[in-house]
């Protein structure tokens, strides 16, 4: 009996030692994040997406206790940077500051788009929205939207021109909606990037452009550009004298551009949850809210990633139809 008891205790001790060895050899799950996070902006520096991403990255870095490095990868209306993130490892260390352009408009504009806005990303939350402002060079002999439309009707044989950062951008589609609503012909001159288009508008070589508030406001203050209307539902606190398109009886021309955070598809749910909570907490920051307001934007957030996913699906359908009706295509 004693021998049996002895053997039982030996076997039990061996089993416990074996389990301990197996447990100690198992890799521990690393706490997220344990290294810097890269936030890709698919547009050049100085754009609304870039400014918004840098503001929230700073605040989120503090709560996550890891730096968030913003990296600009512009090109093809945001498609270049978006594709880069779509193909990145789904580990939470490469994120995208996507926009209405990259996820709701590009799928209808680029027939051979290399990413799918729904299938290739995990939505986290929208962070802010920006309206577009229609500006003209100081040298153009108009001071109101009504005067611009009247001039456009006089020049149907030689249409007024508008610039944009590329086919299918919100600047492009804002002008398309304006032309359709006002029943005037306008000639599109696409550029590779908003800054190049803005340079020619400032020089008077192009008649108008739609731009985000933080981009056009400095030039308006300097008197180099004149702001005629804004595409938001309400006037901008930064440009209170500029009427909305709705005030001009052109509500159909309303458009606001959201900017949002995305991760590659199959990023683990706990990581998405961590990022969502960090972003929502950041958006409660009075300093961040004031910064966005100073830029001419407005905080827009989604309670959960699922809420954003539903809103994204709706926007893809809505703006896809607008793009198809406009005839805009990049290839």
Quick synopsis:
By secondary structure, the chain is α/β, with parallel strands linked by helices. Helices cover 45% and strands 20% of the residues. Residues 1-29 have low confidence and may be disordered.
In words, what does this structure look like?
Residues 1-30 form the signal peptide. It is built from eleven helices and ten strands. Helix 2 packs across helix 9, helix 2 packs antiparallel against helix 10 (286-295) and helix 4 packs across helix 11. The chain folds into two domains: 37-130 and 257-326, Bordetella uptake gene, domain 1 (D-Maltodextrin-Binding Protein, domain 2); 131-253, D-Maltodextrin-Binding Protein, domain 2. Strands 1, 2, 3, 4, 5, 6, 7, 8, 9 and 10 form a ten-stranded mixed β-sheet that branches. The protein is globular. It has helices at 2-25, 48-64, 79-86, 100-109, 145-154, 170-182, 194-202, 213-222, 269-283, 286-295, 305-326, and strands at 37-41, 68-72, 94-99, 121-137, 160-164, 186-190, 208-212, 225-230, 256-264, 298-299. It is of the alpha/beta class and 331 residues long.
List the helices and strands and how they pair.
Layout: H1 2-25, E1 37-41, H2 48-64, E2 68-72, H3 79-86, E3 94-99, H4 100-109, E4 121-137, H5 145-154, E5 160-164, H6 170-182, E6 186-190, H7 194-202, E7 208-212, H8 213-222, E8 225-230, E9 256-264, H9 269-283, H10 286-295, E10 298-299, H11 305-326
Parallel strand pairs: 1-2, 1-3, 5-6, 5-7
Antiparallel strand pairs: 3-9, 4-7, 4-8, 4-9, 4-10
Helix pairs in contact: 2-9, 2-10, 4-11
Family: Belongs to the UPF0065 (bug) family.
Protein name: Tripartite-type tricarboxylate transporter, receptor component TctC
Signal peptide: 1-30
């Amino acid at each position: 009996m004693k021998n049996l008891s002895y053997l039982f205790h030996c076997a039990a001790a061996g089993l416990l030692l074996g389990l301990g060895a197996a447990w100690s050899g198992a890799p521990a799950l690393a706490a997220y994040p344990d290294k810097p996070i890269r936030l890709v902006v698919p547009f050049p520096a100085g754009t609304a997406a870039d400014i918004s991403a840098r503001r929230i990255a700073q605040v989120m870095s503090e709560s996550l206790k890891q730096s968030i490095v913003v990296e600009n990868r512009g090109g093809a209306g945001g498609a270049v940077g978006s594709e880069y993130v779509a193909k990145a490892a789904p580990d939470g260390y490469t994120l995208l500051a996507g926009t209405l352009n990259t996820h709701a408009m590009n799928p209808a504009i680029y027939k051979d788009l290399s990413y799918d806005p729904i299938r290739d990303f995990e939505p986290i939350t929208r962070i802010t929205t920006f309206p577009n402002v229609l500006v003209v060079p100081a040298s153009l002999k108009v001071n109101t939207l009504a005067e611009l439309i009247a001039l456009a009707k006089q020049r149907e044989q030689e249409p007024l021109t508008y610039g944009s950062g590329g086919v299918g951008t919100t600047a492009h589609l804002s002008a398309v909606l304006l032309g359709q609503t006002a029943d005037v012909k306008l000639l599109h001159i696409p550029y590779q990037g908003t800054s190049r288009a803005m340079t020619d508008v400032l020089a008077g070589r192009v008649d108008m452009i739609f731009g985000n508030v933080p981009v056009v406001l400095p030039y308006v203050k300097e008197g180099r550009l004149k702001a005629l209307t804004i595409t938001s539902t309400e006037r901008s606190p930064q440009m209170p004298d500029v009427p909305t398109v709705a005030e001009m009886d052109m509500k159909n021309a309303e458009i606001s551009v959201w900017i949002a955070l995305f991760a590659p598809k199959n990023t683990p749910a706990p990581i998405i949850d961590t990022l969502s909570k960090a972003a929502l907490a950041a958006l409660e920051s009075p300093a961040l809210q004031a910064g966005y307001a100073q830029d001419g934007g407005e905080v827009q957030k989604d309670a959960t990633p699922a809420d954003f996913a539903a809103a994204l699906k709706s926007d893809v359908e809505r703006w896809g139809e607008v793009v198809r009706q406009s005839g805009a295509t990049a290839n």
